[in-house]
Write a structure and sequence with these properties.
mainly alpha
Length: 146
């Protein structure tokens, strides 16, 4: 437990320090990218991202490749920014900490936003096509005199 205290202290220093804005900006950027990818997934009629990773073992490599292509620049930016924050706050850079924190701040919000957006858009599309089908069948019944 004693070895986790410095890690926790450094994490809390990032939250309360003068660079705490990164904890807001990085996830927002990830959510925006996730929404964009989720809309693309919904147009392609693919299942939500995390669900598909868990249930479709045949296509997970392609999905991870696509996610990596979408996230490579923001992920690198998050890792570099965390390294800068570490240097400004602690006068030392811990690469593993920057990689872990950058990945969490970008990867988790991206995956959740991508999956939720896909699901919401897919459900809305389903209800719209269902309602349109009901309207057209009702109109056809009226024309035929039933």
């Amino acid at each position: 437990m004693d070895s986790l205290l410095p890690v926790l202290e450094r994490f809390l220093a990032r939250l309360t320090g003068r660079m705490h804005l990164l904890f807001i900006v990085e996830p927002i950027m990830a959510v925006i990218l996730g929404i964009r990818a989720g809309l693309h997934d919904a147009r392609q009629a693919t299942p939500p991202f995390i669900w598909s990773l868990c249930t479709r073992p045949s296509g997970w490599k392609q999905q991870l490749k696509q996610a990596r292509e979408h996230l490579v620049i923001p992920l690198v930016a998050a890792i570099v920014l965390d390294g800068i924050v570490q240097y400004l706050l602690f006068q030392r850079i811990r690469v593993l900490g920057a990689v872990v924190l950058g990945t969490i701040l970008m990867g988790l919000p991206y995956s959740l936003a991508r999956g939720f957006t896909n699901r919401i858009v897919s459900v809305r599309r389903h209800w719209r096509t269902r309602a349109a089908g009901e309207r057209s069948s009702t109109a056809a019944e009226r024309r035929s005199g039933r």
